[in-house]
Write a structure and sequence with these properties.
The protein is mostly helical. The chain is built from 14 helices and 5 strands. Helix 5 crosses helix 8. It is globular. The two termini are 27 Å apart. The relative contact order is 0.15. The structure holds adenosine-5'-triphosphate and L-tryptophanamide. L-tryptophanamide (LTN) binds next to strand 1 and helix 8.
């Protein structure tokens, strides 16, 4: 514990809204694992089930997706014994601080959030208050743990900026209470694009199945999806105007192999898209294949999963409750 007290903290989360895409893996999950391995941080990794119900969820699917995601976290290499992995709904402090921060967030700020605009146009029949205040709850997730660093994909940057503003606003209104966190956005793969429309983010809620690669897609399906990916008529593996499809495949290949974009251009100089796509597909299969095997073992072992999320919640609560007590005292609530 003493050692942990002096370590910097990380908090991040993923919603259990379906099987993760390659975008989620490269933009977020893979960095969770790398940062945990660096051993410089105490890492709190959370499954954001409270956030997920801002969009309609079938209870049975939500339960399955929530367990699947934990198994996928572990299969991807997260160590749930070293650092806590937990469900947001198991730690009441998230809802408690979420409410207080709601009262510090302005309507105008929330109205500017692009995720809110996107999701409310996609779910026009269910523009609920939770979808609107989603970023204040996300701020609570982060500030509860006094996190120094938050690994996220590029699309979450705006939410992190709001989190920083809220922390600063609260600290100025009362006194120093929250650590102001920094985002950690990967240099390669911060925004993997759709395979069918490379101007749009790869998203698991896209109606076109060929637009995304799921981490648990059968391997032959992955190969087919990459073969069908939209490119251009140039037949030249290079970055450039109108070559967003090729550039996206190049960044996937770069993220999978560690090669730079320049190295990739040299490697495929004079070769056609057929060879290039095959190499990209093989690199993805080489990374996802072993994760899928491990996932099959973890998902069968419900007792182990339960052990991880129970101890995770206990450890998370210990830290989160301290912050909530401090906040409640500063705001002026009577001590219970
Ligand atoms: P949806 O696709 O249903 O809108 P989502 O995948 O965007 O959901 P989450 O599952 O909560 O939302 O995202 C988890 C993490 O994955 C976030 O840090 C997000 O920035 C990152 N992420 C999501 N899509 C991509 C992508 N295409 N490229 C890189 N990172 C991504
Ligand atoms: N909004 C995030 C998921 C999320 C999150 C967080 C990410 C919820 N709480 C705290 C980082 C830190 C998304 O990816 N859609």
């Amino acid at each position: 514990m003493e050692n942990n007290e002096s370590k910097k903290r990380i908090l991040s989360a993923i919603q259990p809204t379906g099987v993760l895409t390659l975008g989620n893996y490269v933009g977020a999950l893979r960095n969770f694992v790398q940062l945990q391995k660096e051993d410089k941080y105490e890492c709190f990794y959370m499954i954001a089930d409270l956030h997920s119900i801002t969009v309609k969820q079938e209870p049975k699917d939500l339960r399955n997706n929530s367990l699947d995601l934990l198994a996928l976290f572990l299969a991807s290499g997260l160590d749930g014994e070293k650092d806590p992995i937990f469900y947001q709904s198991h730690v009441p402090a998230h809802s408690q601080l979420g409410w207080v921060l709601d009262c510090f967030t302005y309507f105008g700020e929330l109205s500017r959030m692009t995720q809110f605009k996107d999701k409310s146009s996609k779910h026009a029949d269910n523009i609920n208050a939770g979808l609107f205040t989603y970023p204040s709850l996300m701020a609570a997730d982060i500030l509860l743990y006094q996190a120094d660093l938050v690994p996220i994909g590029k699309d979450q940057k705006q939410h992190l900026e709001l989190t920083r503003d809220l922390a600063t606003r609260f600290n100025h209104t009362y006194s120093d209470t929250f650590k102001v966190p920094e985002p950690y956005i990967p240099k390669v793969g911060a925004k993997i694009m759709s395979l069918q429309n490379p101007l749009q983010k790869m998203s698991k809620s896209d109606p076109n199945e060929n637009s995304y690669i799921l981490m648990l897609d059968p391997l032959d399906r992955i190969v087919n999806k990459i073969k069908r990916a939209v490119t251009d008529s140039d037949a030249c593996v290079k970055r450039g105007e109108g070559k967003e499809g090729v550039e996206n495949l190049m960044s996937i290949y770069s993220a999978m192999t560690g090669k730079t974009m320049d190295e990739i251009e040299v490697e495929f100089d004079g070769k056609g898209y057929g060879d290039f796509k095959m190499a990209v597909a093989e690199s993805v299969v080489a990374v996802l294949g072993p994760i899928q095997e491990k996932y099959k073992d973890y998902i069968k072992n419900k007792d182990y999963l339960e052990k991880i999320y129970r101890s995770g919640a206990e450890r998370a609560m210990y830290v989160a409750n301290k912050t909530v007590s401090k906040v409640n005292r500063k705001v002026g609530f009577i001590r219970p």
